[in-house]
Write a structure and sequence with these properties.
The complex is a heterodimer of chains A (about 110) and B (about 120).
Chain A lengths: L2 E3 L4 E5 L4 E3 L2 E3 L4 E8 L5 E7 L5 E3 L5 E5 L4 E6 L8 E9 L6 E2 L3 E6 L1
Parallel strand pairs in A: 2-12
Antiparallel strand pairs in A: 1-4, 3-9, 5-6, 5-10, 7-8, 8-9, 10-11, 10-12
Chain B lengths: L4 E3 L2 E4 L5 E6 L6 E7 L6 E7 L2 E4 L8 E4 L6 E5 L8 E8 L12 E2 L3 E5 L1
Parallel strand pairs in B: 2-11
Antiparallel strand pairs in B: 1-3, 3-8, 4-5, 4-9, 5-6, 7-8, 9-10, 9-11
């Protein structure tokens, strides 16, 4: 079985401040981890993924995420948030022997000017 | 187009009606997935196609749900005798993983179809 937890329903930050969105996961084997962003009335847009290699993964729009195996976490980060980063963020996981993604419930990020 | 497209974008159905939702994956993508996203929740897996073969339909909530991909490209998700609990956004995703391989491929999502059953 595989699952994802996003412990925060909402994250609020001021523009220019660092942004962190938390994610922990559970899989029976080795994980593939993903972050997606969803804007209103839009589909999921891929941000970045961890497959193997460096624990720090860099993605689109200045986002990065750090894989921590011992803590089973994959937190999304951005050093300096923009108002345009305000959206709904989803963490997803799949076991390397599977194909279906399991998603967290999502975290709404609001960046105030 | 360059991305996954879905139609219609919005569908309102009366309870008991049948609906058909269409997905056009990225050209050449072998794998196609359907997910259901209820309000305020993350997407949940419904079914998976590799080319025209439906390899997994374990997520379909009832036998009223049926999906097909007859020529290995466009897919249709059909819901018969719709119920209010079917109201959700239905997302389609595709990836380029090779037949028989799981791979590390990213799933790319379409904009979704928002189904409202009255």
């Amino acid at each position: 079985a595989q699952s994802v937890a996003q412990p925060e329903d909402q994250v609020n930050v001021a523009e220019g401040n660092p942004l962190t969105v938390k994610c922990t996961y559970s899989v029976s084997g080795n994980p593939y981890l993903f972050w997606y962003v969803q804007y209103p009335n839009r589909g999921l847009q891929f941000l970045l993924k961890y497959i193997t290699g460096d624990n720090l993964v860099k993605g689109s729009y200045g986002f990065e995420a750090e894989f921590n195996k011992s803590q089973t976490s994959f937190h999304l980060k951005k050093p300096s948030a923009l108002v345009s980063d305000s959206a709904l963020y989803f963490c997803a996981v799949r076991d390397i022997n599977d194909y279906k993604l399991s998603f967290g419930a999502g975290t709404t990020v609001t960046v105030r000017a | 187009g360059a991305g996954v497209s879905q139609s219609p974008r919005y569908k309102v159905a009366k309870r008991g009606q049948d609906v058909a939702l269409r997905c056009d994956p990225i050209s050449g993508h072998v794998s196609l997935f359907w997910y259901q996203q209820a309000l305020g929740q993350g997407p949940e897996f419904l079914t998976y196609f590799q080319n025209e073969a439906q390899l997994d339909k374990s997520g379909l909530p009832s036998d009223r749900f049926f999906a097909e991909r007859p020529e290995g490209s466009v897919s249709t998700l059909k819901i018969q005798r719709t119920q209010q609990e079917d109201s959700a956004v239905y997302l389609c995703a595709s990836s380029s993983s090779l037949a028989g391989g799981i791979g590390t491929d990213t799933q790319y999502f379409g904009p979704g179809t928002r189904l409202t059953v009255l």
